[in-house]
Amino acid sequence: WDNPDIVLFRNGVMVSESEPLLPATEYEIEATVWNNSFDAPVIGMAVDFSFLAFGIATTSTPIGTTLLDVGVKGSPSHPARTRIAWMTPAVPGHYCVQVKLNWIDDANPENNLGQNNLNVADAHSPALFSFQVRNSLPEERTVRLIVDTYVPLELPECKGTGGGEEL
Fold first, then answer.
1. Is the peptide bond before 76 cis (omega within 30 degrees of 0)?
2. Measured between alpha carbons, how far is 13 from 5 in angstroms, rounded to an integer?
3. Burial of 89 by CB count in 10 Å (0-12 exposed, 13-18 middle, 19+ buried)?
4. What's the CA angle centered on 43, arms 46 and 116, to 5 degrees?
5. pTM higher than 0.90 for the full model?
6. Distance between CA 127 and CA 6 in Å, rounded?
7. Vertex 123, ends 3 and 63: CA angle to 5°?
8. Strands of the 93-102 sheet, one edge to the other
C-alpha cells in the first residue's frame, strides 16, 4: 500500500508519488512516526529502512537504520520524523520501500511496518521492467503468470433524491 507517513525527497524537494524515480539516483526517505501513548515516550527506537523488488517471494534489501525519539501523544515532539539517504536501484522496475519500527515495549507491534510502492524508470516509452521470482523451497516449482487488468465495477444509480430520504 502507499503509506502517507513515508515520503521521498530529492535535493530537499518532496517527490510526487505519481512521478517515477530515476535509476541510480540518491533520494531521501522520510518516515513520520506516531506514538499512541499519552504516558510513555519512545527513546532511541530503531527505525529500519529497506526495499523489495517487485515479484514473488522476493527478499528485503536493507537500506539502513536510524534511531528516533518520539514524544507522547499531544506533546511538541509528537509525531517525530526521521530520514535516511537511499540510492535507487540501477535497474528500472517497481519497488516497495518499507519502514519498520523496532520497539521492544510496544503495546501493539503488529502495526509497525509501513510500505510505499514506487516505480524506478528511465524517461522513455514504452517502459520496460523486470519481474523477479524467487523459490525458497528446496524442490523445483512451476510458476504461471497470467496478464490481467483491473476493471472497476459499474456502480448502481442512487434511487434517492438527496433530500434526507434513505437511499
1. no
2. 16
3. middle
4. 40
5. no
6. 25
7. 40
8. 61-70, 42-53, 93-102, 113-120
**Cα gap 29→11, rounded to integer Å:** 12
Query: What are the distances in angstroms from CA 150 to CA 90, 125, 147, 153?
Result: 29, 22, 10, 9
Grid cell locating 115? 510500505
Residue with cell 535509476: 23
The string of pLDDT tens digits covering residues 63-116 is 999 999 999 999 999 999 999 999 998 888 888 899 999 988 888 888 888 888
Label residue 166 exposed, middle or buried (CB < 10 Å: 0-12, 13-18, 19+): exposed
- Across 98-107, b (16+ Cβ under 10 Å) vs e yields bbbbebeebe
* Among 36, 100, 108, 107, CA closest to 70: 36
Q: Which residue has the cell 514473488?
A: 56
